[in-house]
Amino acid sequence: MLSLYDTVSMDFALSCPLDPFLKQLLLKRLDMLSEYSDFDLSELAHFVIVEPGDTMTTIEVELGFSPFVNFVDGAKYGDADFTPSWEWMIAHGPWFESVFTRSDAGVGITLLVPNRANVEPSLIALFNAYSTFT
Asked: Across the chain, where does the E strand assignment appear?
């Protein structure tokens, strides 16, 4: 798992070999955040990138919450009244992207998940059930 929570960690990740689609997506999101140049990335966003072999336990620990539980009512994925807590979810073909806002400060947590068979299957199922496709 990659956890990009500030400018230093993002710059380092972008200097490493990354999936080309993922790299372009990160650069696009950074460009979108560039209008807030008075702030460090740590004050705006935290990008969590899931990799093959990551378990739901490690993903939830890094996020600080479970994407399978609604923040407000506690409904769980699979419950008839479950609604995901993300602000939005997009399937970009090879990658899923979801954004969560956890506080009034507006810091967003972007969860990026490769749409592959060797990635946590329950997370892929959740995203397939609720994502829109671009």
From this structure: 2-4, 45-49, 88-91, 95-101, 108-114, 132-133
Q: Where are the domains of the chain?
A: 2-133
| Coil/strand/helix, residue 58 | helix
Pairing of strands 45-49, 108-114: parallel
- Name the phi and psi angles at 100, rounded to 5: -120, 140
**Structure confidence at residue 134 (pLDDT):** 54
HSE-CB of 51 using CA atoms within 13 angstroms:
6
For 7-38, the pLDDT digits (tens) are 999 999 999 999 999 999 999 999 988 888 88
**Distance set, CA 133 to CA 41, 73, 94, 127 (Å):** 27, 27, 11, 11
Using alpha carbons, list the distances in angstroms from residue 24 to 21, 30, 31, 79.
5, 10, 10, 36
C-alpha to C-alpha distances, 47 to 41, 60, 80, 132, nearest whole angstrom: 10, 13, 30, 20
pTM: 0.92
